[in-house]
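During the reporting period the student researcher (J.K.) took over the structure-prediction task from the postdoctoral fellow and processed the backlog of single-chain submissions. One of the processed entries is reproduced below for the supervisory committee.
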Amino acid sequence: MEYVKAFLVGGAICAIVQIFMDKTKLMPGRIMVMLVGLGTILGAIGVYEPFAKWAGAGATVPLIGFGYTLFNGVKKAIISDGFVGVFMGGFTSAAVGVSAALIFGYIASLIFNPKMKE
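J.K. obtained the following structure tokens:
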């Protein structure tokens, strides 16, 4: 049942974002930044954590979850290292996810034939 919940929640988040992309004139990059910022804000006010615990990967994998992960990393680093944690907390909390995305993206480019859009 956890997989179904994660699929439905993640799909709902992605569907809402897709509708937002289709109905507005905002560029995808700006929408992505807004999603990360929204995840950070929702994490800071304490709304996203209970939602992420309930929804699992459906809430932590989309970009909103990335913002939430960055916020949690900065919060923990500030508690342990003080002001310096503002600069290093986000990097340490998201390093594995970013590294995996780069590595798997590179592997996919070796397996498949990437082409530039025309």
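The committee noted the following: The two ends are 42 Å apart (CA to CA).
J.K. will present the remaining backlog at the next meeting.
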